Amino acid sequence: MKLRTFLTALAATTLFLAMAVTAHAETTLNALFMSQAAYSEADVKAMTADFEAANPGLKVNLEFVPYEALHDKIIAAKGAGDRGYDVVLFDVVWPAEFAKRGFLVDVTDRISKEVEQQVFDGAWTTVSCNGQRYGMPWILDTKYMFYNKDMLRKAGFSNPPKTWKELAEQATAIKAKGIVEYPIVWSWSQSEAMICDYTTLVAAYGGKFFENGKPAFNKGGALDAVTYMAASLKDGLTNPSSREYLEEDVRRVFSNGEAAFAMNWTYMYNLANDPKESRVAGNVDVMPCPGVDGISTASGVNGSMGLGITSNSVHQDEAWKFITFLTSQPVQNRYARLSLPIWKSSYSDPEVVKGQEALVKAASQGIAVMTPRPLVPSYTELSNILQRYIHEALLGEATPADAMDKAAKRAARLR
Amino acid sequence: MIMESWRRKREVWVLLAPALAILAVVTFTPLLRTLWLSFTNAEITALDQAVEWVGFENYIWALTDPDFRDALWRTLYFTIMSVGLETVFGVAVAMLLNVEFKGRALVRTLIILPWAVPTIVNAMMWRLIFHPDYGSFNAALTQLGITESYRSWLGDPGIAMNMVILADVWKNYPLIAFVVLAALQTIPRELFDAARVEGAGAWHQFRSIIMPGIIGPLLVIVILRTIEAFRVFDIVYAMTRGGPADSTKTASFFVYQEYFAYLRSGSGASYAVLVAVISALMIAVYFNMIRRQNQGGY
Fold it and tell me: Which of B41, B57, B260, B270 to mutate to test the interface with A (most CBs of A within 10 A)?
């Protein structure tokens, strides 16, 4: 009797140990994402759960940080060696820097010709540097103009503005009629979000960041962009708090019915039309950002992001498997409410289009015109310089021309 | 006799050796490495890259950077204002808490609370309080009729730094208050009674009894706070990230930026050394003050 109890206990212990060993044999990936725009944390967690269910033995630890911390986190984690991240989300403006310094693995050979043709060209620029690919594009995004149909109607406009000048005119009328105090809202805090709005305007005005390798943001269309931004604040058309806002603040103000126009990413469309998230649900429409007479008909910034494998990772094959799953067409189609797929054929797929026809239509125009920010290895530094001096102009501390002259002078000191 | 003193000296060093060994590993090695890095063109990279000696190039770069010079002045302003206000509030509150009243123990406990809040939590809390649209600061001011409409606090370059200072003072004045309170309790009550009998006024009592009693501990805590304030980074990073238009970007911000945003560890090290040297100079000034005071200043 005693022996039997002992044997049972022994068997149970062995079984337990065996289970513990199998559990230990599991591969765990560490992945870094952001919680700011595009896919929500809940979406990424759901996708990851699906991936783990489909791949027994693979586990993924997710970490979410604000966009503003993403770059520095990727850099700092390098010191953690193989306990750092395996998979990281990276922005379109970083591949040049990351490639030069070897932070990301070159995955050119892992991508088939077939996949290459099925994905938008604009998406590929997100992960490319010198003809090599450093990841898979995942979030295909550009800034759109959202508007409150009801407010436009009340002001007597049957169509949204087609040019930036028209936007200012409509905003002036909306303000004059007392429909809303500040008709336009943007993300103009001293941050990358402001540079995205600025780049959209630079693209619309046909401006250039550099000419023959020399800073050119103090002249032509690039200066016109800052002039437009400063004027819309001075005229009281833009919410002055925009100078403290990031994307989520823009969404909140617009969803509260405190603005007629807002510039934001794809993800805002369905949230602003969701009665649980928004007081203006049902009144929200979306357009590509406007153009400028004689120069452009629409404008946009390449705000896409990709998923890459860090050079620290000792599980590169498993990491690629996870990336392939997240970027696959079925997964992207299923979660297309906050971020549109990178796959061309998705845009005619009823599963994607249904219920968000306006967004998909705006996307097909917006994605075609999206303009990159300067693709230089010292981008982070250049962006910081631009942020600072554009902010000076927006705060009225310097005229746009003076501020951008100073920015150009400072950028010449880049090393 | 000489042998005896020599043996004693050796004993002192032998006993100190473990502590010195630990110091060498945790303090001197990183310090020397940072110093060495500051004379190189080292960068943060995942590749094998040769590091070259560049002499004083990084220092010349840093010191000819007008933005860094602006940041140093800004940091100095932050340090003087926040430590100054903390000292005034700290001493005032300590004197109040030294007076006997009902519920004093409870108030003493409550007052230390801000200091117990982690810096990042404190920064996030004040960011919400100063929020332009739904911050309680705006609500309080308009409801009291002090301001007419909501305004931006952290988005205005003329004001933002002062708002960060306010948040820092709120968190750190209790520390000074408690050190001063402890010192106050060592002053014999009879001195005050005698002063009253002699007809000395409040200001006279403060100068002749309170000041001499608290000046020693007060100087020490002010030194510590000054060093800490000059290195300020976390509260600024969480509240304003250096904005608006760089108006709250402190010297430590440049160290961080050079390292983690621009990945130039060599250049970043030179900024770090410069900040450390300035802190050291300030400490020297204070130590000089303490020495003078010990030699019978008051």
Answer: B260
Distance CA B98, CA B104 (A): 9
The answer, yes or no, to whether the previous bond of B212 is cis (omega within 30 of 0) is no
- Name the DSSP class of B46: S
- Is A71–B261 a contact, with Cβ atoms under 8 angstroms apart? yes
For residue range A66-107, list pLDDT tens digits in order: 998 899 899 888 877 778 899 999 999 999 889 888 999 999
Taking alpha carbons only, the member of A140, A225, A264 closest to residue A401 is: A225
Is the CB of residue A399 less than 8 Å away from at least one CB of chain B?
no
Bridge partners of residue A214, in order along the sequence: A211
Quick one: tokens of A167?
């936007």
Contact A100, A301 (CB under 8 A): no
Pairing mode, strands A370-371 and A300-301: parallel
B60 interfaces chain A, CB cutoff of 8 Å: no
Q: Is B47 on the interface with A (CB under 8 A)?
A: yes
- Range 289-318 of A in CB contact (< 8 A) with B: 311-312
Summarize chain B as % helix, strand, coil (round to 5). 75, 0, 25
DSSP state of A108: G
Q: Give Cβ neighbours of residue B275 (< 8 Å, ≥ 6 apart).
A: B230, B231, B251, B252, B255
CB contact under 8 A, B244 and A76: no
C-alpha closest to that of B217 among B177, B185, B184, B183 = B183
Q: Would you state the structure tokens that stand for residue B110, as one six-digit string? A: 């409550």
How distant is the alpha carbon of residue A320 from its chain centre? 21
Amino acid at A274: D
A26 interface with B at CB cutoff 8 Å: no
In whole angstroms, how far apart are CA B79 and each of A58, A175, A269? 51, 44, 45
pTM (2 decimals)? Answer: 0.85
Contacts of A4 (CB under 8 A, 6+ apart): none
DSSP state string for B206-247: IIIIIHHHHHHHHHHHHHHHHHHHHT--HHHHHHTTT-STTT
For residue A4, name the pLDDT band (cuts at 50, 70, 90): low
Question: Does A103 contact B at CB distance below 8 Å?
Answer: yes
Q: In what order do the strands lie in the sheet with A27-34?
A: A58-65, A27-34, A87-91, A305-309, A136-139
**A144 strand-pairing partners:** A264, A288
Sheet holding A144-148, edge to edge: A184-185, A261-264, A144-148, A284-288
Burial class (CB in 10 A: 0-12, 13-18, 19+), A118: middle
| CB spacing of B44 vs A191 below 8 angstroms | no
Q: Nearest Cβ partner of A101 from B133, B242, B263?
A: B263
Q: Contact B45/A71, CB-based, under 8 Å?
A: no
Find the CB nearest A391 among B132, B244, B257: B244
Contact A386, A217 (CB under 8 A): yes
Subunit contact B244:A244, Cβ cutoff 8 A: yes
Please, what are the averages of pLDDT over each run of 10 residues along chain B (298 residues)?
77 91 90 92 83 91 90 95 96 92 90 91 94 90 89 89 96 95 91 85 87 90 91 92 91 90 92 92 84 68
C-alpha distances in Å from residue A27, one per residue of A60, A280, A313, B93: 8, 46, 12, 57
